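In practice, a research group might receive sequence data for several interacting partners and want a quick structural hypothesis before committing to experiments. The following worked case mirrors that situation: the sequences arrive first, and a predicted assembly follows.
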Amino acid sequence: DQEVADYRKSLAIRVSGFDVPKPVKLFEDCGFSPVLMSAIKKQGYEKPTTIQCQALPIILSGRDIIGIAKTGSGKTAAFVLPMIVHIMDQPELEKEDGPIGVICAPTRELAHQIYLEAKKFSKHDGIRVAAVYGGMSKLDQLKELKAGSEIVVATPGRLIDMLKMKALTMTRATYLVLDEADRMFDLGFEPQIRSIVGQIRPDRQTLLFSATMPYKVERLAREILGDPIRVTVGEVG
Ligand code: ADP
Ligand code: MG
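A structural hypothesis for the assembly, expressed as tokens:
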């Protein structure tokens, strides 16, 4: 309705897609558990950033999303918080199960930042996060993965290596995030991304975030997302 349209306009949010949920104003509007709410407050996050206001209700409703917003806009929490809700809704992992949530990022540094953020928000719920990128020996990584974790944060190359080594399976994975998709393409990871996506069940929820949307990224998004809602914040895109 007009009020929602005006509210989006005031925040410089543009959306496209069917049945777009309306943006929230507060974290309290998201239906988060008390445990997750206190983890959010502990981070000093008082209210959602602009991208979070629109992305959170979309992702929490189970829809696929293309999120386009510049660096520093708070995209990490936009996909990590609903991932925790998604995981808490699932039956517990069996020992041999692989992760429920898989996050791919272009570089070790970016993956590590996401890893830290995911840990902060998920540790109080007993959710385990595994880091699958350079910096740890492949053998140590393999051991960590064999012990089980609900979330895997990975660079595409290292994740492919681990899959080849049968260090994990993705049969339980139902929540896939491709973060900084444009940079992953710039770094030549398109084949690895396609291979990873091809190994995750098609009834997954897929989230793609990017600062820009070059044609190659747009084409991949069309192929691997189902009825996505596209959200753009600000002048990017
Ligand atoms: P992006 O991925 O869009 O570049 P980040 O997720 O890295 O942005 O977030 C940028 C900074 O903003 C981080 O320091 C993060 O902790 C902080 N941040 C994210 N969401 C909020 C919020 N709702 N309130 C306050 N700070 C936030
Ligand atoms: Mg980011």
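Before designing any experiment, note the following. The longest strand covers residues 205-210. Residues 45, 48-49, 52, 69, 71-77 surround adenosine-5'-diphosphate (ligand 1) (CB under 6 Å).
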